[in-house]
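Let's practice the habit of predicting before peeking. Look at the sequence and jot down your guess about where helices and strands might fall. Then scroll down.
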Amino acid sequence: MSFDALGLCDGLQKAITEQGYTEPSEIQLQAIPAVLNQRDLMAVAQTGTGKTAGFTLPVLQRLSVEADAKAHQLRALILIPTRELAAQVAQSVVNYSAHLPLRCSAVYGGVRIESQVTELQQGVDVLVATPGRLLDLYRQQAVNFDHLEILVLDEADRMLELGFIDDIRHIQSLLPLKRQTLMFSATLSKGIKSLVDGMLNDPQYIEVTTANSTVDQIEQKIHPLDKARKSEALIHLIQQHNWHQVLVFSRTKRGADSLVLELKNAGIAAESIHANRTQHARTHALADFKAGNIVALVATDIASRGIDVNELPYVVNFDLPFVPEDYVHRIGRTGRAGMSGLAVSLFSEDEYKQLQAIERLIDHKFEREVIPGFEPSVQALIYPSPDEEYGNFEPDDSKSTKRPRSKKRGRRRGKAAKRNR
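Done guessing? Here is the structure:
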């Protein structure tokens, strides 16, 4: 089926063609008609499936019908968990609305609020926002929701993980009761189901992609080695294979900065992107990475949302994630839109439980591939015993893969969320 069959207006059809798209993805085929029918929607879709266009196109279609009569009143609000993703989604809205009389603006923390106030005073039809900054602007009476018709929550699972639930509930209380609400999430956890029950009215459910099908098109390699040699191994891989653009995932902000220093000392252009860096530094690093001015961009999971690089060839898990679903999010940055991609994971003995959880999630047992010269001292990393096969664990073992929920961690996550307002 082509986009023509979805009933989109000429202005949107022209913009779609200019963006180089000819056929809608599965999420777009299902979501666009649902949104146009003004149904509330709960969609489960992984990153890289085209979900942004899945809600952007029908929202713009709806707004364009009465664009002249309701010129530049806030009618659609898109809530986003992180700054980079907010900027990316806003750019998509701008691209698709190029031939429509609609204005879009993005507001998020890390930059001066005064310029955002000025832009809102000029009037917008679509506002892309992180929850914290949106509430700051509301308190300054720079934004009101009197004419709001559509609310979109993108990456709702990440919103909950970052501790935005109270902000989301507060924002919900400020919005008109009569509205259309669209929610997109990579998972349908208990927390998401609770959010759906409290925010959506008789929603249509769509689930188009499982974790396993998302990663099938990506070549995945697991390299067992000693933890102390991970940096050396990464440098070796980049130099030996002449990798020119690689996104590297670090579990911590400090680890990301330390790895960047080691890469630079080896003559590899690298930068980090995480919550402790200023928005200007993050934006500059991402722009340099996209332009090919740096070889390696080292990111944490929180900051990585919104990193969308056309034809990104390589992703490296320098540290395996504690939450197995994050593995799917990470490697999904490559192999997008039918392109090939390679995902490499450097795996040390202390990450055995994480690897088991990932294998259970995607229903795939990885073959260990040793990098010559980097043989691990623990041979079990290469030849696991039959008792350690991923299908033979008691159910309680899976609990060890979850992030610990101590009060201390909760405070850290809260601070990170505020920094990403």
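How did you do? The two ends are 39 Å apart (CA to CA).
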